[in-house]
Predict the structure of tRNA threonylcarbamoyladenosine biosynthesis protein TsaE.
Amino acid sequence: MADPATRLLPTVEDTEALGRELAAGLRAGDLVVLDGPLGAGKTALTRGIAAGLDVLGRVSSPTFVIARAHRAGGRGVGLVHVDAYRLAGDLDELDALDLDADLDRAVVVVEWGRGVVEHLTDRHLLVRLVREPESDVRTASWEWVRER
Ligand SMILES: Nc1ncnc2c1ncn2[C@@H]1O[C@H](COP(=O)(O)OP(=O)(O)O)[C@@H](O)[C@H]1O
Ligand SMILES: [Mg+2]
């Protein structure tokens, strides 16, 4: 498999722009796993994906809800935005979200999803967001990963 693509993200607008670009290659049934620490830009990237997919409703940090569904707009594909942080690896709670059903008609983006949701599809787009604590330099790397 090719090496992951990488990009410097100097501003939050750059992170959102990357989300819009990635959205151009996404369709219903695709799973996007966002990895990176608090404040890395996972929600900002999701906002860009939502803009690129042209879904309805504002993307916010799902602090009080685990998953938020955005209905399809112009492109006819919805978005389900999950924050798996609060799931803390609780597989029963993950099952209860019924993301399998969402994947029939939506793109599913999962913050903190690494190691938790990959089994839902046979491949996923893994986006790693890194923020250097000293310099505050931010980068993203992304690649499609196939389950075996
Ligand atoms: N290049 C950048 N990319 C993303 N966020 C940035 C960037 N520069 C500054 N920020 C700020 O960092 C914060 C990222 O927050 P958020 O997207 O909620 O992160 P996460 O969901 O990973 O916890 C926001 O306040 C945003 O404005
Ligand atoms: Mg977030």
Remarks:
- The helical segments are 12-23, 42-53, 91-97, 99-102.
